[in-house]
Design brief:
Blueprint (H helix, E strand, L loop, with lengths): L1 E4 L14 E4 L2 E4 L17 H18 L7 E8 L5 H9 L9 E6 L9 E8 L1
Parallel strand pairs: 4-5
Antiparallel strand pairs: 1-2, 2-3, 3-6, 4-6
Helix pairs in contact: 1-2
Length: about 130
């Protein structure tokens, strides 16, 4: 049985998918990009603010499922330019305790939705 997780505090999906699915105690999030959920505009001033918006969107989705970043067991980070890895990692690290940080992969891709620089998805467990 699956439960659809949706919140107005994260961007509305731009395609036929949901923000997250809760199946049992496991939450599977869709990838988040840097859309400000209030204005609907992309946050692209720099890679730091873009990554922060992505993480804040993810925080809102986790919160709606009554979870935090401490519940995250796996993340996937997709970036359009590996030269941004260090900056993205610096922002990402502020959301996790290094000792209990989740497993992760970071992959450079040719393009992302709306031609953003970073997209992040997560799996979390209660």
């Amino acid at each position: 049985m699956k439960k659809i997780i949706t919140t107005d505090d994260a961007p509305t999906p731009i395609g036929p998918y949901n923000q997250a699915i809760l199946s049992g105690n496991t939450l599977y999030t869709s990838g988040q990009i840097a859309i400000n959920p209030i204005t609907g505009e992309l946050v692209l001033e720099d890679i730091f603010s873009e990554t922060k918006q992505v993480m804040e969107n993810m925080k809102a989705v986790l919160s709606k499922a009554e979870m935090t970043f401490e519940n995250v067991v796996k993340t996937s980070i997709f970036i359009s330019d590996m030269h941004n890895f260090s900056a993205i990692n610096k922002v990402y690290a502020t959301y996790f305790n290094e000792a209990t940080a989740p497993a992760r992969e970071t992959v450079e891709v040719a393009n992302l939705p709306k031609f953003v620089n970073v997209e992040i998805s997560m799996i979390a467990v209660k």
